[in-house]
Amino acid sequence: MRVAGILLVEDDPSVRTALELALTRQGHSVTSYATGEEALDHIRSRRPEIAILDVMLPGIDGVEVCRRVRKLDQLPVILLTARGDDLDVVVGLEAGADDYVVKPVEPRVLDARIRAVLRRAESAASDRITFGDLVIDRGALKVTLAGKEIHLTPTELRLLLELVRHPGQVLNRRYLLRVVWDHTHIADSRLVDACVQRIRAKIEPRPAAPVFIHTVRGFGYRFSPP
Amino acid sequence: MRVAGILLVEDDPSVRTALELALTRQGHSVTSYATGEEALDHIRSRRPEIAILDVMLPGIDGVEVCRRVRKLDQLPVILLTARGDDLDVVVGLEAGADDYVVKPVEPRVLDARIRAVLRRAESAASDRITFGDLVIDRGALKVTLAGKEIHLTPTELRLLLELVRHPGQVLNRRYLLRVVWDHTHIADSRLVDACVQRIRAKIEPRPAAPVFIHTVRGFGYRFSPP
DNA sequence: GAGTTGTGTCACCAAACTGTGACATGGCGT
DNA sequence: ACGCCATGTCACAGTTTGGTGACACAACTC
After folding, report:
1. Is B88's pLDDT higher than 70?
2. What is the CA radius of gyration of chain B?
3. A31-89 tens-digit pLDDT
4. Mean pLDDT of B85-93
5. Whereabouts does the entry annotate DNA binding, in residue ranges (chains A, B) (predicted)?
6. CA–CA dist A33, A42 (Å, integer)
7. Distances in Å between the alpha carbon of A34 and those of A7, A62, A181?
8. Nearest Cα residue in chain A from B89
9. Does the distance separating the beta carbons of A90 and B111 come in below 8 Å?
10. Which residues does chain A have within 8 Å of residue B123's beta carbon, measured at their own beta carbons?
11. Checking phi first, is residue A186 left (phi over 0); if not, alpha (psi -120 to 50) or beta?
12. Residues B156-181: pLDDT tens digits?
């Protein structure tokens, strides 16, 4: 099991140090803060693997941190709540938390929850995305089609990943040129088209009738799974 | 908080009515069925915002419904499963469910899950607007009528989007020419009319008696849902 | 340095799109 | 009922757009 970079946010110093100590002893790498503001900074700059947030915090509370984090990232979140209040559970889930734990919590239980959430996050929202026969492994930067590995060149891969990052959305050529190539200028060029064409030749069973990358005439391209 | 059009599928009548009642009380608009077949029909014709499917159903089961729905749309799905069986969870997630809930379920918890899934779907998927049977997805630049995708050409789409951006407002031809085309000049032409006509031919059930795009004689056109 | 791979560009073609004008239709005031 | 004028309808040809294959050059490998 991987050792996680955990962000712990808890305003009560005694609980905080106790949990930090316990989690560290269990092999996690922990950073802890007392306030939501600090937590958000940390998340933005350090990209922890999981955040454990006390619901009750001075200033920005845990639920609010959770909500903001969710808007910007898939970072897994566990909320700590003081009582087994159903209401808190509801609010927490609404904010998009992956799990919630009622205090006081056995370190061993918390550890199990963390691992469970991480495991879930890893398999669900991991580096690997599957669209029918097409599997895109963002970690290994590998693409396979019906089990066979497909070789994509760096540019092709960047373009495909960009399209896949926004499944179902139409991305226009200007945007793609900017993001994949960094051409801020150059309005017109067949570059994107040519690259799409090359990707299609590799991943589409019938490039003339594409299933993955669809052309939206006059606008751009859309990746949408079959 | 938005009220959702929920499709509930559960074969046990007592559970079904109980959940339907609870969800309705929480402000949702619920339609329920006992079988997967009915559910698929409903989905195709009525376009609910979210489907809650019991995994165990006679005939087409929940997982299968989920799988088929996923093939055709981004409709959010929550699966109801009888036991906390890990296997079910895995199968459910593989079929593309957004969440799964173990029965018996607290209505309040289910409500929270629904809202969480809807929120996620809303932010992940694009912004789409629904007018009865007509769904306009501005991110995917897709228009569907009663579930069937309608192909619009770029100009038609731009015009429709412009009309839809101001529902209920009358937009005159000069304005439309300026915004949709870039004609600052050319006051008179049948251009707008022709384009409206083409859109109507595609989205209006009876183009002679339009329900979406109304002509306001002497002024222009108004988009207003039926 | 020779060969290999990756990338941008171009020209050409087919298909899709669109503006146009002539004509039909229908609403509205008289 | 009549005529006027705004709008609907339609076909077509010119234009635009994207697909495609060829190619040149750069980058990289050995």
Report:
1. no
2. 21
3. 889 888 888 888 877 778 888 988 878 878 788 888 887 766 678 888 887 755 545 55
4. 56
5. 126-225
6. 9
7. 11, 11, 42
8. A120
9. yes
10. 71
11. left
12. 999 999 999 888 889 989 889 888 98
Query: What is the rounded distance in angstroms from the CA atom of residue A28 to the CA atom of residue A19?
Result: 11
The model's pLDDT over A124-149, given as tens digits with 9 standing for 90+, comes to: 444 567 787 888 887 778 898 887 88
CA distances from B204 to B145, B172, B196, B200, B213 (A): 9, 20, 11, 5, 8
Q: How far apart are CA B121 and CA B98, in angstroms?
A: 9
Percent of chain B with pLDDT over 90: 24
Q: Model's pTM, two decimal places?
A: 0.57
Least confident span in A102-106, B92-96, B129-133: B92-96
Please state at what angle helix B107-124 crosses helix A86-94, rounded to 10 degrees.
10
Interchain contact, A217 vs B154, CB within 8 Å: yes
Least-confidence region, from A208-212, B37-41, B42-46? B42-46
Closest-CA residue of A relative to B123 is: A71
Nucleotide nearest to B157 (CA to C1'): C17
- The gap between B172 CA and C26 C1' (Å) is 20
Contact (CB<8Å) B141/A170: yes
* All protein residues with a CB under 7 A from any atom of strand D: A 190, 193-194, 196-197, 200-201, 207-208, 215, 217-220; B 173, 190, 193-194, 196-197, 200-201, 207-208, 215-220
pLDDT grade, residue B123 (50/70/90)? very low
Enumerate the residues of chain A whose CB falls inside 8 A of the CB of residue B108. Answer: 86, 90
User: Which domains are delineated in chain B?
Assistant: 5-123 (3.40.50.2300), 128-223 (1.10.10.10)
For A115-137, give one letter per residue: b (16+ CB within 10 A) or e.
bebbebbeeeeeeebebebbbbe
* B212 phi, psi to nearest 5 deg: -100, -60
* Residue A94 to residue B116, Cβ atoms within 8 A: yes
Q: What is the pLDDT of residue A125?
A: 46
